[in-house]
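Table S4 entry, SHS2 domain-containing protein.
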Amino acid sequence: MGLFSRTIVPKSFIGVDIGTSALRVVELSGWGDRKTLKNYAQLRVESLYDKPFRAYEQNSLALSSQDLARALRALFEDAGMKNRKAIFSISDFSSFFTSFELPATITRKELESAVQFEARKHIPLSLSEVTMDWQILDGPDKGKGTNPYRVLMVAVPNEIVNEYQNIAKIAGIELIAIEAEVFGVIRACLPEEHGLTLLIEMGAQTTTISVVENRKLYLSRSMDQGGNALTRRISEALAIDYLAAEKEKIAKGLDVKVGETKILLPIVDLIVTEVDKFRQVAERQEKKTIGKIVIAGGSARLPGLAAYMQSKIGVPAEVANPFREIVYPPVLEPVVQDMGPAFSVAIGIALRGFVS
Ligand SMILES: Nc1ncnc2c1ncn2[C@@H]1O[C@H](COP(=O)(O)OP(=O)(O)OP(=O)(O)O)[C@@H](O)[C@H]1O
Ligand SMILES: [Mg+2]
């Protein structure tokens, strides 16, 4: 077949984010650098149950695989997904991240087994219980340099991988990959080239703080703190029900007060303190300064959050826009503005499908 007679069929992939507060799916299609939003959908947990719940109780999902599969199938059908090729994200809370060095003298061929060997020392579970993935952050330049390899390793309990495979099977979805959420957020929210950045993903239940440069992840840590804790605090302090507290939070953010006291600050400060610790560790390790803070996740739009982070940490902070390189119809602009940061994981995970 001649080069010019070939029809280029755009590829299309679906990113699936099973979060504590919502299931989100995004279908992207395209080729090269141009990706188009084909479909998106979300199912908020409140629409299934009358109060939020913890989707991850340790390593298992609170909803049964059957229920999740049913919900996903319904979402796919409602959204009119054109295909069934999907990538699932795994909560950073269930993933184990570590990084280590290996000598520059190791050849590329030997690297795989050296990484496996070294991983044993770093992973608290037996290697037969986990699925591992790794990437090289730094290393000898084309065999010439003497810098050691720096390897980032992610391990996920097989139990979770099996559960996701099972959910996909019941839902009739072709699961082509599983990836830790943080990699999706990085791909969706940061350009290929950028300086040392603090990336914060604040969801309903957890907040993940990561240090990234040129889309390479150097450090990452998840905290069991998120938007739900803020809503609970408002509900208790103002003696209003959960849904009213949620509205109050979205309207006033950090300015929600009882008397003169801004009641959300103590919770937000737990996160800010951790972010600042990360900044210090990263700056010491990398011998560079952090140039920017990018905030993603549903809680990124908490009024006042970015400005507060910026003033406390002394680094410019902005809300992530995971749609910035995605083509979408102009009528969706308000939706993108409103829900954009909450779709960071789903978009980034869908983009994974295009990585060759
Ligand atoms: N405009 C807004 N302002 C403040 N908070 C918001 C806003 N929109 C959504 N949220 C909060 O974002 C949270 C949901 O974020 P997200 O959808 O990223 O979480 P999730 O992925 O379901 O949870 P997790 O990742 O923690 O498992 C909720 O606590 C919700 O109240
Ligand atoms: Mg999430």
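Confidence is low (pLDDT under 50) at residues 49-61.
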